[in-house]
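Subgroup meeting minutes
Present: P.N., E.W., G.H.
Scribe: E.W.

1. P.N. recapped why we're keeping a running log of single-chain structure predictions: easier to compare across weeks, and new members can see raw inputs and outputs side by side.
2. G.H. added today's entry (175 aa).
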Amino acid sequence: MKVFAESLKFLKNNFLEILKLRIPSIPLHYISWVLTVPAILTDRAKQFMRLAALEAGIPGTQLTLAYEPEAAALCCRESAYQGTGHLAGSKSSSGTGRSLLILDCERGTVDVTAYEIMKNGRLKELHEPTGGPWGGTMVNQAFMKFMEDILEKKCGQNLSMNTGVNFSIYKDTLN
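Output recorded in log:
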């Protein structure tokens, strides 16, 4: 808990310092804090994040936890509005709203969520969030294994990610 709380406290204090440079007299009760969390986080884990934020000095009455995919969907909706000047949820002639598929690609996981933007601009979740261990780390590991396999076949050597092999030295061999 301490590590999360101190991290949030650092971010909060850094933000407030920068804000005071730009708006010196803003009352702190005007600030709403939104902490994004993965969509597949358990209730217990969300409570942990809320407690860490409270320990960091963020008032509970000014704190909202938002799912990362929802935040991304709202950003997409706002981007569409900025580009067209019309609310991205307005109904088309076929009577259906615009749908968004949000892929939240993180280091270790990918979370997938689908939303429909309703006529009033609100988001309707089309399916329960899902995901799995397909994030960037897994892609990197698969690529390294792929490169090892190629180099072992081309060079006849047993190469391992653990040996710190610099694959760029084998560029000519691959061509």
